[in-house]
């Protein structure tokens, strides 16, 4: 943010950290990268019963340029890999990634010629979410883990 | 400036990351102004190599993979595959399990159509329907969870029957849903069926004639929308569907609106089928007692040594059907879902070819949107109800 | 379901050289056709009023090399008649060394993608197909994944994988 150049690691910047992190973690804008079955559970998570809005993360943006949390929900194939990377690159910093489901985390049950064995081959992942598909509660948990992670970050590190 | 005077064709890329392509479909559109000149679908972004993987699995193991083809209707996929294997083995599932299969298949049909309605309406701009549909879907997911232990991807069907009997309280829960549901459909219909905007966006859009629909190999609601009265549950009944009383709704013009109406009516019919199946479900076994091919009943594992041995053998070694080839098809929510299974007598299938309805239905897209406006593309894709999981396999 | 057993006989009368084998297994009729005749047979079955196979359910390839060590591929057609409500399966053997066969897209339009898929997975060339390109695998993919000699976890050459990951510029 350029602040640290002026103030260094002082009380002012640590307090700013708190404010900025509070804002970031309570207004996550996910980019729903729905690829396969997991995407349906992701939709259930925003739908009435689980209502991701309670955690401030309901504004699903299909444009990567407006979002800061990428939820990779589904199997990433080699054909899709380039697209995945491109979309990740288009997201502005700071950004986080949830690998939702066994497929995105590790290739899942599809250990074949066509499937990328885990999306971390292509982009960095912050939270791995097991399950095939993970339940909506689990996705909410993953979002909360991201929020915790945001809390520990500092504008100075950027 | 009119399009005709400029004669400039512009190429637009749509997808594979686009909310209205229902997954990872990519369309290359050649546009003349707002009019679509050609539309070329590009698929394969979710090609996971399922058919190759099948050749390395045992017959039982492959059931879990079928869920992940059309993940909106896992039961139909399970059933189609298992019916093919049962045909190969020349066995039949007990009556009770056939009825259980009907109940769950029809519930998945409703669930799949609900998701179609939710996303189709959302694409066209009606947000409320999405929330309503997902409310009902959650109830259905609870029901599936009761029976199979999972909200999605049930893997509930087994060769020769189903995984376990219906749990206590299941029928009551389903009955509650079945009694409620007609009123819910009426809710959706008040929002859409006579809605001016809806009519303008769907009427006479994406028309395909019956003749073309047959030639392009369309199936399911997509062909019935064009007035072809063909439903595999009626024409080649499987799993006791001949004992159910239901009608097959058809459209007339074959536009988006007709396909919408067909699916809405199908939900009602499915609801009635579930009711009938629940009323008449016979008592008896839920899986056949043929030790070499069918899993033993779970309760017997605790009591009988033979059952334990058979279970162990089936799980570790698998089953070896006779040499031969069969094709079995079911009426999945999206159309004719076929499995062509070739056996060489070993425990692994020699070849499994899946005939996915969405794959073939999508082929008709080109025909439907040529000469239409860009905005219609979204409506037409929605009306085909595609699932990329089974298109790409 | 109508009785399908007559179809084999009928076809034999019409094209004596074309039909190499007729077999029924589990109530399903399978007719093996000679490679050179598939176009004519398809058109006949499609237009004849008694058979009336107006609907092509499925078309796929099979690699027979491990089944009878014959080093042949097979193209399998599943036909259905909406009016007569009957099904038949046609099988055509082609040598793996020269896997080519006539297209049936001029009879059933739906064959287009099916044939592209068979080409993608087995490398079977369909003569006269309007646009025979790979359909499921990515551009630049090497090999034909469903052939029996292609390994399940066959990875693409590293250079190509880099392209997939980074995206072509
Ligand atoms: S993890 Fe399971 S549910 Fe999720 S995309 Fe993969 S196969 Fe589908």
Largest interface: B-C, 40 and 36 residues
Task: Give helix and strand order of chain C, one letter per element, not per position.
Answer: HEEHEEEEHEH
As residue ranges, the low-confidence spans of chain A are none
Structural class of chain C: alpha/beta
Shape of chain A: globular
Any descriptors?
heterotrimer; A: 158 residues; alpha/beta; C: 169 residues; Beta Polymerase, domain 2; two-stranded parallel sheet; binds iron/sulfur cluster
Description:
The complex is a heterotrimer of chains A (158), B (393) and C (169). In chain A, helix 3 (37-46) links the parallel strand 1 (30-34) and strand 2 (69-73). Chain A has six helices and four strands. The termini of chain A are close together. Chain A has 158 residues and is an alpha/beta fold. Chain B is built from 18 helices and eight strands. In chain B, helix 5 (95-124) packs antiparallel against helix 12 and helix 12 runs parallel beside helix 17. Chain B has helices at 3-6, 50-54, 62-67, 74-89, 95-124, 127-148, 170-192, 196-202, 210-215, 221-224, 232-235, 256-280, 298-301, 305-316, 357-363, 365-369, 374-384, 388-392; strands at 10-14, 26-32, 35-42, 157-158, 161-162, 324-332, 335-343, 351-355. In chain B, a hairpin with a 2-residue loop joins strand 6 (324-332) and strand 7 (335-343). Chain B has a three-stranded antiparallel sheet. A three-stranded antiparallel sheet of chain B has the order 6-7-8. Chain B is mainly α. Chain B has a single domain, classed as Orthogonal Bundle (Cytochrome-c3 Hydrogenase, chain B). Helices cover 24% and strands 28% of the residues of chain C. In chain C, the strands form two sheets. Chain C has a five-stranded mixed sheet, with helices on one face. The chains are: A alpha/beta (158), B mainly alpha (393), C alpha/beta (169). The interface between A and B is medium-sized, with 31 and 35 residues. Iron/sulfur cluster binds at residues 36-38, 74-75, 101-103, 108, 132-133 of chain A. Chain C: Keywords: Cell membrane, Membrane, NAD, Quinone, Translocase, Transport, Ubiquinone. Chain C: It catalyses: a quinone + NADH + 5 H(+)(in) = a quinol + NAD(+) + 4 H(+)(out). Chain C: It comes from Candidatus Scalindua arabica. Chain C: NDH-1 is composed of 14 different subunits. Subunits NuoB, C, D, E, F, and G constitute the peripheral sector of the complex. Chain C: Belongs to the complex I 30 kDa subunit family.
């Amino acid at each position: 943010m350029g602040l640290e150049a002026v103030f260094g690691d002082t009380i002012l910047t640590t307090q700013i950290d708190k404010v900025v992190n509070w804002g970031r973690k309570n207004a996550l804008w996910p980019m729903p990268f729905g690829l396969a079955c997991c995407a349906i559970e992701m939709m259930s998570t925003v739908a009435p019963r689980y209502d991701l809005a309670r955690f401030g993360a309901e504004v699903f943006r299909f444009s990567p340029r407006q979002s800061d949390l990428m939820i990779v929900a589904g199997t990433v194939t080699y054909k899709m890999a380039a697209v995945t990377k491109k979309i990740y690159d288009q997201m502005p910093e700071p950004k986080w990634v949830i690998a939702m489901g066994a497929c995105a985390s590790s290739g899942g049950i599809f250990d074949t010629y066509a499937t990328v064995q885990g999306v971390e081959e292509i982009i960095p992942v912050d939270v791995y979410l097991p399950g095939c598909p993970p339940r909506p509660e689990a996705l909410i948990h993953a979002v909360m883990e991201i929020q915790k992670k945001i809390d520990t970050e500092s504008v100075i590190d950027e | 400036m009119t399009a005709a005077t400029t004669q400039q064709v512009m190429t637009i890329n749509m997808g594979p990351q686009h909310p209205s392509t229902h997954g990872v479909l990519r369309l290359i559109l050649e546009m003349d102004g707002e009019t679509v000149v050609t539309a070329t679908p590009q698929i394969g972004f979710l090609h996971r190599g399922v058919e190759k993987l099948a050749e390395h699995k045992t017959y039982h193991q492959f059931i879990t993979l079928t869920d992940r083809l059309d993940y909106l209707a896992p039961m139909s996929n399970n059933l189609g595959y298992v019916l093919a294997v049962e045909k190969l083995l020349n066995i039949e599932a007990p009556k009770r399990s056939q009825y259980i299969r009907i109940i769950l298949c029809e519930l998945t049909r409703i669930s799949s159509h609900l998701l179609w309605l939710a996303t189709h309406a959302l694409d066209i701009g009606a947000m409320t329907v999405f929330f309503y549909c997902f409310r009902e879907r959650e109830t259905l997911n609870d029901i599936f969870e009761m029976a199979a232990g999972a909200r999605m991807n049930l893997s509930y069907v087994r060769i020769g029957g189903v995984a376990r009997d219906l749990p206590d309280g299941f029928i009551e829960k389903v009955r509650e849903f079945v009694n409620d549901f007609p009123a819910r459909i009426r809710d959706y219909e008040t929002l859409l069926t006579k809605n001016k905007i809806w009519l303008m966006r769907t009427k006479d859009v994406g028309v395909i004639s019956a003749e073309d629909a047959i030639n392009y190999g369309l199936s399911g609601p997509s062909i019935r929308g064009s007035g072809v009265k063909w439903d595999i549950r009626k024409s080649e009944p499987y799993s006791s569907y001949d004992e159910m009383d239901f009608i097959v709704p058809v459209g007339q013009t074959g536009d988006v609106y007709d396909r919408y109406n067909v699916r809405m009516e199908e939900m009602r019919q499915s609801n009635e089928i579930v009711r009938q199946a629940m009323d008449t479900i016979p008592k008896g076994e839920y899986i056949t007692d043929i030790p070499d091919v069918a899993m033993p009943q779970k309760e017997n594992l605790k009591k009988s040594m033979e059952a334990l041995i058979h279970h162990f053998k089936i799980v570790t070694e698998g089953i070896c059907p006779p040499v031969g080839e069969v094709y079995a098809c079911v009426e999945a929510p999206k159309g004719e879902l076929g499995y062509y299974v070739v056996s060489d007598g070993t425990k692994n299938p020699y070849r499994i070819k899946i005939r996915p309805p969405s794959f073939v239905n999508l082929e008709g897209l080109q025909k439907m949107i040529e000469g239409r406006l860009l905005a219609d593309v979204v409506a037409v894709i929605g009306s085909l109800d595609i699932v990329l999981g089974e298109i790409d396999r | 379901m109508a009785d399908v057993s007559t179809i084999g006989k009928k076809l034999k009368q019409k094209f004596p050289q074309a039909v190499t084998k007729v077999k029924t297994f589990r109530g399903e009729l399978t007719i093996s056709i000679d490679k050179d005749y598939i176009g004519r047979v398809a058109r006949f079955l499609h237009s004849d009023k008694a058979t009336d196979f107006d609907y092509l359910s499925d078309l796929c390839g099979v690699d027979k090399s491990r089944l009878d060590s014959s080093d042949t591929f097979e193209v399998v057609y599943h036909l259905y008649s909406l009016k007569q409500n009957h099904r038949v399966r046609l099988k055509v053997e082609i040598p793996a060394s020269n896997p080519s066969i006539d297209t049936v897209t001029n009879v059933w339009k739906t064959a287009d993608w099916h044939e592209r898929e068979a080409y993608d997975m087995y490398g079977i060339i369909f003569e006269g197909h309007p646009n025979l390109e790979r359909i499921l695998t990515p551009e630049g993919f090497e090999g034909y994944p469903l052939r029996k000699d292609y390994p399940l976890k066959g990875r693409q050459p590293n250079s190509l994988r880099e392209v997939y990951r980074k995206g072509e510029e």
